[in-house]
Amino acid sequence: MHEEALTRWQRGWSAARGWTDYQQVDDVTVVRVGEPERRVEYVATEAQATAAAHLALTDSNPPGTSWLAITTDDPARLAANLKPLEPLRTEWLMTITLADHASHPVPPPYTLELSATPSIIDAQIYGYGEIAATGRMSVLHTGAVADQITTTPAHRHRGLARALMTALARAAQTPTAYLSASPAGRPLYESLGWTTLTPLLVARTSTNY
Q: What is the rounded CA–CA span in Å between residue 124 and residue 160?
């Protein structure tokens, strides 16, 4: 049901993180991450969950370094069905028409800086002599994807994440955007007009075998 949105998110998410090596195997997107603790990520809908689990359990990566991101309407049920894979958390795949994105200014005395390449927009908010918040948005023909939206602990609850998202949304110049929200981030994005499409179960191979 959400296969197209998942593909668009994966393309932009991979671009935002510089993960350019990915391919389709049995309708599962295999992203070669290459990090020591995260060698590969298998991205799929629940219809391909069994195929994704098989790929993770039979690849040659060390235990705990093959990850999965799978859309599902019932994360708890899917987690039980994927054993012995280890569920890590539930995120939420969200989308928005950027013209409908709420607008929030950067509060004084903070200042915003944007830098961009043809496909990546980086935003930083500075205040009191340090970086207070950062974020990135990839912009592809499949849509924009917001990623790594972070406010440092000393600067939280001052509207910086809302201002950061506003700046990225304005700079993207594309109709639609996607993101994967954590439990903590989901209320923020909902307040800005983002809509939840589906839960996204994040799991990995177990470190206990």
A: 10
The span from the CA of 119 to the CA of 14, in Å, is 12
CA dihedral 150, 154, 159, 164 (to 10 degrees): -30
What is the token pair recorded at 157?
């609850």
pTM above 0.90, yes or no: yes
Mean pLDDT score, 10-28: 96
Give the residue from 95, 98, 117 showing the smallest Cα distance to 8: 95
Q: Is the pLDDT of residue 1 over 90?
A: no
Q: Which amino acid would we find at residue 173?
A: Q
CA-based nearest residue to 146, from 179, 98, 191: 179
Q: Which helix (H) or strand (E) holds 96?
A: strand 86-97
Residue 199 identity (one-letter amino acid):
P
